[in-house]
Amino acid sequence: MRYGDPMALETYEGARSYQELSDFCKENLKPSCSPLNLSLCDDEKKKKIEKYQAMTEDELYEEITKVDDLMSEADTFLQAEIEKLQEKYQQVMSEVSDTKKMAKIEYDYGIMKAVMGMKKKTLKDEL
Predict the structure, then answer these.
(1) Using alpha carbons only, what angle is made at residue 30 by residues 29 and 31, rounded to the nearest 5 degrees?
(2) How is the chain split into domains, by residue range?
(3) pTM for this prediction
(4) Which of 1, 20, 81, 127 has minimal CB crowding within 10 Å?
């Protein structure tokens, strides 16, 4: 879902439950401060808009590119960290699996469970 100023739509990245979407819409889907709606802006935002309006397209493009690059670096960092977490997860899962296999073999787990099942059956038969 995209929202905001038609000249610079933003992507909604929030929660998807009905209540959260409803709350977001009530708060954000209304006329808001923008270069097309300066009357809705406070003095601080008006100054920022005027600053960017005074820039050439090349200057503005350069500033936008800096922010795009920063966000791209953040996404790259996130992906690298996710990959590390996935590797760690696989390592931990393998260790847990190996420990369980070893415990079952070393402590005769299968035999103990079978004997326990037999004892319970015998006890039920006696009652």
Answers:
(1) 135
(2) 1-40, 55-127
(3) 0.57
(4) 127
Q: What is the DSSP letter of 6?
A: T
* CA–CA separation, 105 and 111 (whole Å): 10
Give how far Cα 90 sits from Cα of 82, 93, 103, 108, Å. 12, 5, 20, 27
Compute the distance between CA of residue 127 and CA of residue 97 in angstroms, rounded to an integer: 39
Cα 66 to Cα 21, 52, 53, 60, 79: the distances in Å are: 31, 14, 18, 10, 20
Mean pLDDT, residues 74-96 taken together:
98
Find the mean pLDDT for residues 23-44.
Answer: 89
Alpha helix positions (H), the chain:
18-28, 43-53, 57-106, 109-126
Q: Which residues contact 38 (CB under 8 A, 6 or more apart)?
A: 46, 49
Interacting residues of 21 by C-beta distance below 8 A, sequence separation 6+ = 14, 15
